[in-house]
Fold this protein.
Amino acid sequence: MKLLSYFLLTPLVFVLNFCSNQSGGGESRDAVLAEQSAPMATEPANYDKTGTSETDVTVYERKLTKNGSIRFETSNLNKTKQLIMSAVSSLNGYVSNDNISESNNHTENTLTVRIPADKTDSLIAIIESNASKIDYKSIDVQDVTEQFIDLDTRVKTKKEVETRYRELLSRATSVEEILKIEEQIGNIRTEIESAEGRLRYLSNQVQYSTLHVTFYEKYSNFGFWGKMAKAFKNGWNSLLWLLIGIANLWAIILFIVFISVGITYLVRKRKRRV
């Protein structure tokens, strides 16, 4: 009796296992179809928006930007400028803007200096030690660590999304799928380049401080005689510009002289005949 039951149950178990395997194959096909339809979405369906795992932890240093301005009086404008330019060069900085203005009683020079962040205090100390009188000094320090982390994480996340889309592109079979995936890749690439540009700008701001240095020289005894001296100076400069203008018109002046001499000669010759 047991032997008969064994022979009856064995075919039944075989049929159930066969049906189960067919059901598993259907689920596999559904997964493939779902994966192929993923390009219709803005991001792959199996993408984790956090972009990080429990073990993927990046430690960031503090990112600080330092900007400031200083204004002071000097007894010699040219020497002060040379001193500042020399100090900036020795500290591996550079001058990005240079403006000079003149009023009734003083000449003012403003320099926009880009200096390595760790050398900013050294430059300010050099300036203060050579200033006759400091009108004001302002230093603004901002912590941009959060912005830096946000941009850096955004770039990494978008690059992971781009990689997944490129994997889908390599498995795409129809023209419609290829075009949709390439469109998504183009959009993500634009976002990546924008975030990377902002990240480079922020890194530059952290690496180099911006310092606006304004210094001026007052004219001593700028009364009547001071104004007369300035008037003579302006008159001399005007004369020089007049001579420069005449030099630029030498060909026209020479032509006029030649014509005048010719006309005078013809008039005198006619008078002699009369």
